[in-house]
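note to self: the first set is below, dont mix up w the second
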Amino acid sequence: MNDGFAWWLVVLGIAIGVGLSWLVLGRLPRDEGDVDEDERAVEAAWISRSIADYGGVAPAALVEEILELHRGYLRGPALDPGAQQRHEWEEASEPPMSDPRSLDHPAAADPEVRSPR
C-alpha cells in the first residue's frame, strides 16, 4: 500500500467519524436541563405569542409558571394514571349513588321497599 492511499483512508475515516458524530449529536432531542432561565423566558414569550396568534390568551408569566411546573413534573416520579379519577371522586361532596336496581343498593335488600323499574 502506498503512502498516498493510506493518508486518503485516514482522511476518509476522520470525515466519516465527524459526519456520524454530527448526525448522532445533532439529532438528539434537548432535555429540560438544557434550557436555562433566560431561554425559558424567551420560550414562554414565544408560546404566548403563538397562542395569541390563534386567538387565545396566555400571558407570558403564566406560560413561564406552567413551564416551571412541567419541569418539576419531569423531575418527579411517574404519576399513576388512575390517581386523578380517584382524587376527583374523593373530592366530591357526596359519594356517587348506586343504582337502586342493583343488588348492593339498600332498597334491594328490603322486600318492603320497591324501586321503580
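second set (the one i keep forgetting abt)
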Amino acid sequence: MQLHIEGDAALIADFRDFPGRTTRAMVRALNRALVSGRTVMVRAMAGDVGLRQTAVRTALRQRDATFQRPSAELGASLKRIPLIQFNARGPEPSRGRGRVTYKLGASRGHVPGAFIATMGSGHRGVFTRRTRQRLPIQELFGPSLGRVFAKYRPQVLEAMHASFLKNFDHELRFQQAQGGGDAGTD
C-alpha cells in the first residue's frame, strides 16, 4: 500500500541540498506509519472474527521501507485459518460423539461429525472423516483474513497517513537539527 505524501513545503525546501537526509526521514516515517497501521488492523480484525491478536498478527505480512525502495506495504495472507483457533470446543478424544463448536465473530457454530485430535507431530486441530472408514481424515479451516483485511483497509490507510505526516515532520526537524552536510544513504 502506498501513501500520498504532503509535507511542509518550506521544511522540504531546506533539504533540497541534502537528499540523503530527506530520504532517511521519509523511510523512518514510513516504517513508523506501517507499525501504527498494523496495530490498528490487528485490533480491528481480531475483534471482527474473534481471534487472538497474535494469530491475526502472524497472518499479516509487512514489507518495510528501505533507502533503495522508499515504500512500505502491509498485506494479509489468503491462507485459511485452522478452525481450532476459533475457540473450538469439544471432547478430546471425541469417541465418535462429534460435538465440536466454534466461535466465529459474535456467533457460535457447530460441525456435525467433527472431532478434535492431536496428531503425532503435536499439531492440534478439528477434523472430520471423509468416509465411514477410520481414515482418511480432513482438517477443517475457517475463513482467510484477506477478505476481512479489505473491509478495514480505508480505516487503516487513514491512520497510516496521519501517522506518516506526523512522523515525517518530526524526522525532518530532527535531521535539520543534526545540521552539517548530507548524511548519505547508508
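remember for set 2: The mean pLDDT is 82.
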